[in-house]
Write a structure and sequence with these properties.
The complex is a heterotrimer of chains A (292), B (410) and C (273). Chain A contains 14 helices and no strands. With 292 residues, chain A is mainly alpha-helical. Chain A is globular, with a radius of gyration of 23 Å. Chain A starts with 8 loop residues before the first helix and ends with a helix. Chain B folds into 2 domains: 37-145 and 295-364, 3-Layer(aba) Sandwich (D-Maltodextrin-Binding Protein, domain 2), CATH 3.40.190; 148-293 and 367-409, D-Maltodextrin-Binding Protein, domain 2, CATH 3.40.190. Chain B is built from 18 helices and 12 strands. Chain C has helices at 6-33, 38-41, 56-64, 67-97, 103-112, 118-131, 138-146, 149-159, 164-172, 177-188, 190-205, 209-214, 223-233, 238-265, 269-272. Chain C has a domain at 65-233: MetI-like (MetI-like fold). Chain C is mainly α. Classes of the chains: A mainly alpha (292), B alpha/beta (410), C mainly alpha (273). Chains in contact: A-B, A-C, B-C.
Chain lengths: 292, 410, 273
């Protein structure tokens, strides 16, 4: 590649997308960053002269807001448990599906993708039933083996874990597809060579499969991490952040404080705290990948 | 081969630009530009067919844009931000304060006398209260909404209240007996996330919110009594704290023979549990010092920068007419805000609806201040601390007052 | 890797089967519930098979939804989303296979747009559209969602695995850059493009928020918005909601069935070399 003189070709490829992204996604983020240093609310939105610059007040206030700190703690809880589970389970499904190359794989690809396209109301209704403490299926099954009923959604810590289970269930589809596409791109001859060397299956998985799909694993890990840091829909439809604020996430907090109650300045500030966490987490991953 | 692919790609792109261009050219700004057309935003899609009669009468075309409830707030925000809205706009009573503060609506004060149907005396007083913000009148009541007690007549008869409980003491007595029927049997369903309900309990205990007093309001007598009343039902096992069966199932199998709800529930029960006919009824709210229920509903407002004020007002005048209000009730069973409409046999001869009519005479609106929703949500969280976390009531309320003063000082 | 014997095959099949059942239960319930009456939908414990199957919800759906207009709008959005997919693919290729100044910086800008919850930028984006005079236009509905950082990132990750030699060889043969992209790169990237087509179709088919916010006229509404309105008219009617969702999901399943086979058709980079 010609690095010494300016080459226009790459810009022809990235130009249109970057331009559109800049105007409709990046510029609004800059605007929001500006808003986070103001006291903008609904009146300010209607009449910009009513907006006051408040410096770092919103940020100071956030770190004194118990509800926000709790939401931040919950979010870390979700991420630490949820991300490895989500990445691991979708990889497992993809590997299992990849054993087959007939009707089994094509049928189960659809089956395992189906949660991603199931209507959220249907999900809420069915899972609410599964999790219902008195009449739910899970507790009924547990009662058959004499286990006491579990307060699936009625106790903060248990409720967080229940939502993680639900979210892993729901999010597996897309990651599974990506892993499958990656698995398909591993040349068969690598395995054949390993067979000749007498490697067992576990060795093959860790020495060939995983390293060969590093690019896909990296992508899935980064996007899953970003997704879980912005954990929103599950608590929104299942618990609305309760009980006792125990399942509230940062994204849900931002939605409630900032947009339900129209405190745009405060909401924008909270979202930049979240943004900072996301960016640090992402950069760490990029650094780790470089050192690989 | 190469040329062919690139060529077809270019054609597609060109077509794309043309389509986008064509679509862009018919865009209009702020309401409709057509002289004899007004645009109306509503959250009730049935309005679309309903306005045909008005169109025929007046010769004005009404373009109804229906917006799903869950996203109406977002849609209104962008309208406020850009100044591009409809001519006429439906607004829920709880959103009046925040959008009025932002200057979304035209002040109708000077027009009240011009249109016969705008007379405040035509409407329930507490409905008119929520059309006022900061000395302005921003809307005309359209329909109202309130809460009453739904109960199983057969089961309540067994515990000595065949006509339904009159007072909260009656409710507690009945609920205690009903909850004693066995495991998984409760006396009543008490709302835990409804933002209005705790305020209703406080009003019924003689409490009032005064705007100037801020957080000190919640130290006045009546408020704590309301919170204690709420707590009693859970503490003594009269109501279920956790998420149980679906409410209609619990109502129909008798495990929860009482609950509070609004007018829409009548049709819904008739449709979904028809076998219960004759075994249930509605009763006005139980009384403590009084039996005030909340009043909600929606108003018609005029968007601040419309150019068609007269057309907009004429349309609202038609919607506020007693006759229109009766036929709207016919269409979607939303309760008329106009009191004259209630004299129509359609409403007056219906026992259950009449109970709502009776309740409407004893209603109160939640305070019309932009901070109300945040304050109410904090209260819900506080009640959760008391009911689920055994927080001490006095301490929890003190904490709540601190929260309120910080909300009000924002 | 391959399974060695029948026994292993059976074990893996059993795991897939049990997991599959668990995973698709809500979906099956959603489909079956669309044939239940209002009462049965909400009964606890839920019934799986409808006791008295009814088509009333589907009839209501087809009678009351303003299909013609909403379907056309939705299809227009889908069409343009596919154009957007092309732009995403080009950008992913650009980031994956070229070196240029500030590449990392440009790519960071792309990634940053994934890192903020959507509601935060909704109002600024609307104001930008408003300044450009694009409110109440199809362009205003389409443009904000055309490019997705997620897609660019995904394609870039795959492009990186394509050997440089392959592209260099084509250049030496005198192939133009766009010829290389369309004739060499796109066929190689088939599996991941199939994933992309599926994801893009689903997102655009379900377009909801922007059509609602940008449109000041119901003639720009999409199927999702129409469905939401119909559900508002029938709040307690879960059967109708399920029928609506089942109806919306059919085209998605069809698209999925068509494109999923490309995912495993596979490309064997080393084989080409």
């Amino acid at each position: 590649m010609n690095k010494s003189k300016f080459n226009i070709t790459p810009f022809l490829f990235i130009g249109p997308a970057v331009l559109l992204l800049f105007v409709f996604s990046f510029a609004p983020i800059l605007v929001s960053l500006g808003i986070s240093f103001t006291d903008m609310n609904l009146s300010g939105l209607a009449n910009w002269s009513q907006i006051n610059f408040v410096g770092f007040d919103n940020f100071v206030q956030l770190f004194q807001d118990e509800k926000f700190l709790q939401a931040m703690g919950n979010t870390f809880f979700y991420v630490i448990i949820g991300v490895p589970l989500a990445v691991g389970s979708s990889l497992l499904i993809a590997v299992l599906l990849n054993f087959f190359n007939n009707w089994v794989s094509s049928t189960f690809r659809v089956v395992y993708y189906v949660p991603s396209i199931t209507n959220i109301v249907a999900i809420a209704v069915v899972w609410s039933f599964l999790y219902n403490q008195e009449y739910g299926l899970f507790n009924y099954l547990l009662s058959l083996i004499n286990v006491d009923s579990v307060p699936w959604l009625e106790e903060p810590v248990v409720a967080r874990l229940s939502l993680i289970l639900l979210a892993v269930w729901k999010s597996n589809g897309v990651s599974m597809l990506i892993f499958l596409a990656a698995l398909q791109s591993i040349p068969k001859m690598y395995y054949e060579a390993a067979d000749i060397d007498g490697a067992n299956r576990i060795q093959k998985f860790f020495k060939i499969t995983l390293p060969s799909m590093g690019f896909a694993t990296f992508f899935v890990t980064v996007t899953t991490l970003i997704g879980w840091l912005q954990f929103f829909e599950e608590p929104f439809v299942m618990t609305n952040g309760g009980p006792l604020n125990g399942t509230n996430s940062m994204a849900l907090f931002i939605y409630q404080e900032g947009f339900q109650y129209s405190q745009f300045g405060y909401g924008a500030a909270a979202s930049f705290v979240l943004f900072a966490i996301v960016i640090v987490a992402t950069l760490v991953q990029f650094k780790l990948r470089k050192t690989d | 081969m190469k040329q062919k692919k690139l060529g077809s790609l270019l054609v597609v792109m060109l077509a794309a630009v043309l389509v986008l261009g064509a679509c862009s050219s018919n865009g209009s700004s702020g309401g409709s530009s057509d002289k004899d057309t007004i645009t109306v935003w509503t959250m009730t899609p049935e309005l679309e067919d309903f306005v045909k009669e008005y169109e025929d009468e007046s010769g004005v075309k009404v373009e109804v844009q229906a917006i799903p409830w869950d996203n109406a707030h977002d849609k209104l925000l962008t309208a406020v931000a850009s100044g591009k809205g409809p001519d006429v706009l439906q607004i829920g009573t709880t959103w009046v304060a925040e959008f009025a503060e932002a200057g979304t609506f035209l002040d109708l004060t000077d027009y009240i006398d011009e249109y016969p149907n705008f007379n405040p005396d035509n409407f329930y007083e507490s409905a008119v209260e929520t059309t006022k913000y900061d000395g302005q009148t921003i809307g005309i009541p359209w329909y109202v909404d309130t809460r009453v007690l739904y109960y199983r007549t057969d089961l309540l008869e067994e515990v000595g209240y065949p006509e339904g409980p009159e007072t909260w003491e009656d409710v507690k007595d009945a609920a205690t007996q009903l909850a004693a029927r066995g495991d998984d049997q409760y006396g009543i369903e008490i709302p835990q996330v409804d933002q209005n309900f705790p305020f209703m309990l406080a009003w019924e205990n003689g409490w009032q919110y005064e705007e100037g007093e801020g957080a000190a309001n919640f130290e006045k007598t009546g408020f704590k009594e309301g919170v204690e009343l709420h707590h009693t039902f859970f503490e003594e096992g009269m109501a279920q704290l956790t998420e149980g069966k679906q409410l209609y199932q619990a109502f129909s199998d008798g495990s929860k023979p009482m609950f509070f709800s609004g007018p829409w529930e009548i049709n819904s029960i008739n449709e979904q549990i028809p076998e219960l006919e004759g075994q249930w009824d509605v009763h006005v709210m139980p009384e403590a010092e009084n039996n005030k229920s909340m009043i909600g509903g929606a108003h018609w407002t005029v968007f601040n920068n419309t150019e068609k004020v007269d057309e907009a007002l004429d349309f609202i005048n038609w919607m506020a007419d007693p006759e229109t209000q009766v036929s709207w009730y016919d269409t979607v069973t939303e309760l008329p805000a106009n009191m004259e409409a209630w004299e129509d046999p359609e409403l007056a001869d219906d026992d259950k609806i009449s109970t709502f009519g009776k309740q409407l005479e004893s209603t109160q609106a939640v305070p019309v201040i932009p901070e109300f929703e945040t304050m109410a949500q904090e209260l819900i969280d506080t009640l959760e601390q008391i009911n689920r976390n055994d927080a001490d009531i006095d301490k929890a309320l003190e904490e709540y007052r601190n929260q309120v003063s910080s909300i009000l000082s924002k | 890797m391959e399974l060695k014997n029948k026994f292993e095959r059976a074990v893996v099949l059993f795991i897939l089967f049990a997991g599959g059942l668990l995973v698709s239960l809500p979906f099956i319930w959603m489909i079956l519930s669309s044939f239940k009456n209002d009462r049965e939908v909400l009964s606890i414990p839920p019934t799986l098979f409808p006791e008295n199957p009814t088509f009333e919800h589907y009839i209501e759906l087809f009678q009351n939804l303003n299909f013609g207009v909403y379907l056309i709008n939705t299809l227009i959005i889908v069409l343009f989303a596919m154009l957007g997919l092309l732009l995403n693919t080009m950008a992913g290729y650009g980031f994956g296979k070229f070196d240029f100044r500030f590449k990392e910086g440009w790519f960071m800008i792309v990634l940053v747009t994934m890192m903020i919850p959507g509601q935060v930028t909704m109002i600024p984006t609307y104001l930008i559209l408003n300044e450009m005079g694009l409110t109440n236009t199809m362009a205003g509905i389409i443009l904000p969602g055309l490019i997705a950082a997620f897609n660019i990132f995904l394609i870039r990750q795959f492009m990186v695995t394509i050997p440089d030699d392959l592209i260099e060889a084509a250049r030496l043969d005198g192939a133009g850059e766009f010829y290389i992209f369309f004739k060499l790169i796109i066929p190689l990237a088939k599996p991941i493009l199939a994933v992309q087509v599926i994801l893009t179709f689903i997102a655009s088919w379900n377009s909801f928020l922007w059509p609602l916010i940008v449109a000041n006229d119901e003639s720009l509404y999409t199927l999702s918005v129409g469905l939401a309105l119909l559900q508002d008219e029938n709040v307690t009617n879960y059967g109708l909601q399920m029928a609506g969702s089942a109806f919306m999901v059919v085209p998605i399943v069809v698209i999925f069935m068509i494109f999923q086979k490309y995912i495993v058709e596979g490309f064997n980079v080393s084989g080409i070399k």
